[in-house]
Design brief:
Rossmann fold, four-stranded parallel β-sheet, three-stranded antiparallel β-sheet, 26% helix, globular
C-alpha cells in the first residue's frame, strides 16, 4: 500500500491567474509557476539563502481585477486585513485564507520615543493584535492557503517561537494537520502554546539548524508543505 504522505499523492499547488512565473533572485532563471521547487538549483550551499524564488505577477491581469478605491475602507467591497490584497498575493482569493483577522493592524504614534531618537515623527506597527500575536501570522496565512490549494496532507515548519505559533494558530482555524520541529532550547511556554493549538510537536535534541534540516528532509520524504522561513 502506498504511503499516503508520499509526494506522488500530493496534488500540484493550484496557480492563481495573477502569478506568471517564479524567478531566482541569484541567477535570474525563471520557472513556471507550477514548478514543484522551493529554491533554485543554483543555490551554492545549504547554509545560504541565495537561490530564493521571487514571485512574478501579471499586473495587466491584476489591473482588471482590482482598483485602488477597493483598497479603501470606505469602499463597499472593502475586505479587512491581508484579504484586501488577495489579487496581489499568490493565493486563489480571500476565501482561501483561514477565517482569522490577520493584518490590518494599527499604526500607533509614538511621540516620546520619537523625541528620544531625535525623529520628527515615529509610528509603531502593532502586529501584536494578530491572532498569534506575531507579524509572522501574515506569512503563515499565505503558506497555509498555498498548502491547502495543493492538497498537502501536513504543513510543517521548524521554529523556536513565533513562526511555529503563527502556523499552529492558522492550522487550528481550519483543522489542518501540522508538524512543528523545535530545537532543545525552545521555550516551554511556546511548546505549550503549540500543543494547545493541536499541533504535533517534535522536539530535537539539537540546534535550530538541525531542526530545520530535519523538517526539510521530512517535507521532501513525505510530501508535506514546507513553511520554513528562508527556504
Amino acid at each position: 500500500m502506498p504511503n499516503k504522505f508520499s509526494p506522488s499523492n500530493v496534488t500540484a499547488t493550484a496557480v492563481p491567474q495573477q502569478v506568471s512565473a517564479l524567478r531566482c533572485l541569484r541567477c535570474g532563471k525563471e520557472y513556471a509557476p507550477t514548478a514543484d521547487i522551493y529554491v533554485c538549483p543554483c543555490r551554492p550551499n545549504q547554509g545560504s539563502d541565495l537561490g530564493t524564488l521571487d514571485v512574478l505577477y501579471d499586473y495587466a491581469y491584476i489591473q482588471n481585477q482590482i482598483s485602488p478605491p477597493q483598497l479603501q475602507q470606505e469602499h463597499p467591497d472593502f475586505t479587512a486585513g491581508i484579504a484586501r490584497y488577495a489579487a496581489l498575493l499568490p493565493i486563489a482569493g480571500p476565501t482561501s485564507l483561514a477565517p482569522l483577522a490577520v493584518g490590518g493592524t494599527p499604526l500607533l504614534s509614538a511621540p516620546r520615543l520619537a523625541a528620544q531618537l531625535h525623529l520628527t515623527t515615529l509610528h509603531v506597527k502593532d502586529d501584536g493584535r494578530n491572532p498569534s500575536g506575531s507579524l509572522k501570522d501574515r506569512a503563515s496565512a499565505i503558506a497555509l492557503s498555498r498548502a491547502r490549494a495543493g492538497g498537502a496532507p501536513i504543513v510543517a515548519t521548524a521554529s523556536t517561537g513565533n513562526a511555529a505559533a503563527a502556523l499552529a494558530s492558522q492550522c487550528a482555524a481550519v483543522g489542518q494537520s501540522n508538524v512543528i520541529f523545535v530545537p532543545q532550547r525552545a521555550p516551554q511556554a511556546k511548546i505549550a502554546q503549540l500543543l494547545a493549538y493541536g499541533s504535533t510537536v517534535i522536539a530535537i535534541d539539537g540546534s535550530y539548524d538541525q531542526a530545520f534540516d530535519l523538517c526539510t528532509q521530512a517535507c521532501h520524504t513525505f510530501g508535506w508543505y514546507n513553511r520554513n522561513t528562508g527556504y
